[in-house]
Amino acid sequence: MDVTERIVAEQLIQQLHAARVAGDLAGMCRVFADDGRFEILGASADKSIAIRASNLAEFRPWLSMMVKVFRIGNYQMLSLTVEWPRAAAHWRADIYSKVTGVTVPTELVDVVQLNEDSILTYTEFFAPR
Q: Per DSSP, what are the bridge partners of residue 112?
């Protein structure tokens, strides 16, 4: 892996997280490949959650729902490991639900596969801490 590949990986993850914290749906969509694969797997306080989509058109409604329902606060990147073309980001945040009115401190790990300008595969694991 060269320095340029590490910089690309860091920038894509930072752009994704910044857009997510800002609730910027268009910004989140910009970093994903149109034909990418997407998964979100985790557990809330009372049930497990699994979302799978085979392309951005299928995944965009889920991202839209996330932006409308959840607000992210106290974002903190804990680690970012890059082994091009893969990267893993471990982060934590307080996630506020506009539906329940409850804020849940949450641990998250994003595992991604990248190319030079987008995220090709994205898997997010999350759990309340």
A: 87, 122
